[in-house]
Amino acid sequence: MPSPTQPAPPLPEPLRVAVADSHTHLDMQEPSVEEALSAAAAVGVGTLVQVGCDLERSRWAAETAARHPEVHAAVALHPNEAPRAAERGELDSSLAEIERLAGLPQVLAVGETGLDYFRTGEDGIGSQQHSFRAHIAIAKRTERALVIHDRDAHADVLRILDEEGAPERTVFHCFSGDAEMARLCASKGWFMSFAGNVTFKNAQPLRDALAVAPPELVLVETDAPFLTPAPYRGRTNAPYLVPVTLRAMAATKGMSEDSLAEHVAANTARAFGY
Ligand SMILES: [Zn+2]
Ligand SMILES: [Zn+2]
Questions:
Q1: pTM value?
Q2: Closest ligand to residue 224's CA
Q3: What is the mean pLDDT of residues 95-114?
Q4: Residue 172 CA, ligand 2 centroid: distance in Å
Q5: Which residue among 17, 55, 141, 147 is least crowded, i.e. fewest CB within 10 A of its CB?
């Protein structure tokens, strides 16, 4: 988690067309939920998807979404949590509880689930893949969107999605593929959500992916407190910084800010079904 040793970035110029932060972790951010929501609303980020990463934080996401109409919840065991739950002998009971939470009306997505070969070693891959398959099934049974976390695991994520059959609405959060993968996702009708790392100097392959992604399938997210966009890299991220990333994305796509924002707003509502 970034350490708040540097001052918080200033509020960006408000968006004229309001969009959603399609993926955030308010439970890992310093300000209160109310402060985070009002800063976001002040710059045209009127809707948030709060993502839970383990059982306790998925319950918190559902409770927070129940209290705030502009917050929707996503619930899951994060791919890095799955092996830990398996080690405690709690993976299957936790998955059953995730399914119960997924059925709540304010919970619109199952995720983030998927594969993370960056943080989880060889010995965790089995339980990670088992958990991913189970989450795909839960999303389909509960008719919720599926939110995928894919870190250094493109080939296996795509293979397992293919084997299980992707839910009708599938979102690649913090999309990290190249142009070829973006074309593949587009051919399947999968949403691609871009985070602050699309602004990083070394992220040209990611910008190439964004450039070919159809405007009808593009979302924006912060994944806050992580992945703070340039020029604030290294500081703590928050939903109110969505406009910084969205503006950089519009430049990459050669679109006006308003036009991209209109697409993103409609896409996020379609992806999550609100
Ligand atoms: Zn993630
Ligand atoms: Zn996340």
A1: 0.97
A2: 2
A3: 98
A4: 11
A5: 141
pLDDT band for 125, please (50, 70, 90 cuts).
very high
Strands 71-75 and 45-51: parallel
Q: What is the pLDDT of residue 41?
A: 98
Burial class (CB in 10 A: 0-12, 13-18, 19+), 95: buried
Position 245 scores a pLDDT of 98
Residue 112: is the preceding peptide bond cis (ω within 30°)? yes
- Tell how far the Cα of 255 is from the centroid of ligand 1, in angstroms: 27
What is the Cα–Cα distance from 233 to 227, expressed in whole angstroms?
A: 7
Contacts of 231 (CB under 8 A, 6+ apart): none
> Is the peptide bond prior to 231 cis by the omega test (within 30 degrees of 0)?
yes
Question: Between 204-212 and 179-188, two packed helices, what is the crossing angle to 10 degrees?
Answer: 30
User: Ligand 1 centroid vs 173 CA: distance in angstroms?
Assistant: 6
Nearest alpha-carbon partner for 17 in 230, 220, 164, 169: 220
Give the residues across from 109 on adjacent strands.
74, 145
Residue 164 has pLDDT above 70, yes or no: yes
Give CA–CA dist 77/158, Å, rounded: 19
Instruction: Please give the structure tokens belonging to residue 223.
Output: 């994944």
The closest ligand to the CA of 151 turns out to be 1
The predicted pLDDT at position 3 comes to 54
Q: What is the pLDDT of residue 6?
A: 83
Single-letter amino acid, residue 144: R
| pLDDT tens digit sequence for 27-64 | 999 999 999 999 999 999 999 999 999 999 999 999 99
Tell me how far apart the alpha carbons of residues 58 and 79 are, in angstroms, rounded to a whole number.
14
